[in-house]
Amino acid sequence: MTQKTLFRPIIGVTLDSEEGGGFSDSPWYAIRQNYLSCLEEAGAAPVALPHLTELAETYLNMIDGLVVTGGAFDVPPAMFGEEARTDTIRLKPARTEFEAAVLRGALERDMPVLGICGGHQLLAVIAGGTLVQHIPDEVSGVLEHSVSKDTENAGGKERAGHSIAIEEDSLLAKLVGTTGQHVNSSHHQSVRTVKAPMRVTATAEDGIIEAIEHTEKSFAIGVQWHPEYKQMEGDVHLLAAFCAAAEAYHNR
Questions:
Q1: Which of 51, 117, 120, 210 is catalytic?
Q2: Quick check: is 205 catalytic?
Q3: Is 168 in contact with 180 (CB distance < 8 Å)?
Q4: Closest by alpha carbon to 230, among 180, 195, 182, 194?
Q5: pLDDT tens per residue, range 214-249
Q6: How many other C-beta atoms can be found within 10 angstroms of the C-beta atom of residue 147?
Q7: 38 catalytic, yes or no?
Q8: Predicted TM-score (pTM) above 0.85
Q9: Whether 187 is catalytic
Q10: DSSP SS3 for 3
Q11: pLDDT digits (tens, 9 = 90+) for 104-137
């Protein structure tokens, strides 16, 4: 076995967190296994990143790519200059503080970044964008984007899903090999606006923004859906391209 086949880029994956109760009386971290297994299957070595903001630079020195995950939380409206207009918002300050620090650091280094669901929304906000705080309150005639208010637990219901259109000249289209695909959907917020050099690269039929990318970075993509489920061939291609970008970053 050659050294080449032994190497795997290290991908830092952010965690969700919960206060004491349920699983443990003490606060605890959580992550779905497929966030990690999909990266291992794509050729990377995933590692989970606890919410220790003071160690953000240390983590960035250790990893070759960053995945900012989704979860049962929202980006604080204050981060994009608004007051909360809905009681559906669920804040996790320690998580957001850490993810903002490590995401900013990764962008400064031009480290490959993949934002998924809430991570996609945070990527937009970090780059100067804004969010729709609660889709049903602010957008009329929308598709079904979530089967529950603030979790990925479908509760026995069929999970939401819909088609998206991908901009033909985008990096995303090049990586997934298509300008349209079906995606899963589990979110009550969405990106409202982006600020250059961030651009919108995919939308749903109802106009909800489904993907963004940073045009001045080698790989900084946010997707509103969950490619870690690998429900479509394009998701597999996206994850493989992200891990390849992380390997290229390691070899710079």
A1: 117
A2: no
A3: no
A4: 182
A5: 999 999 999 999 999 999 999 999 999 999 999 999
A6: 17
A7: no
A8: yes
A9: no
A10: helix
A11: 999 999 999 999 999 999 999 999 999 999 888 8
